[in-house]
Amino acid sequence: MWERKVVPKDVKEGQFAVVAVKCEEPKRFVVELRCLTNPGFLRLLQKAGEEYGFKHDGAIAIPCEPHELQKILLEMKEK
Fold first, then answer.
1. 35-54 b/e with 16+ CB inside 10 Å = b?
2. Cα–Cα distance between 78 and 1 in angstroms, integer?
3. Is there a contact between 62 and 18 (Cβ–Cβ < 8 Å)?
4. Residue 70, Cβ neighbours under 10 Å: how many?
5. Residues near 58 by Cβ (< 8 Å), separated by ≥ 6?
6. Name one GO biological process term (predicted).
7. pLDDT, tens only, 5-22
8. Is residue 37 part of a domain?
9. Most buried in the list 7, 15, 20, 55, measured by CB within 10 Å?
């Protein structure tokens, strides 16, 4: 049977959560779906799939340091 999952209040429609995990203190980000069109972000997702698989609940674990993900998000915001 289908089980309803609770979405955190800070994740709005058109967004999803990711966690940069290659650091001492993992950092959570809420990103927009348009990130799925960014080549740099897509490379990180591919790497995440290779390292952790594709089936999981909650935020997506991204195998990078927070500053790497912040750089991609900042570049997208500036465009």
1. beebeebeebbeebeeeeee
2. 43
3. yes
4. 14
5. 17
6. response to auxin
7. 777 889 999 999 999 999
8. yes
9. 20
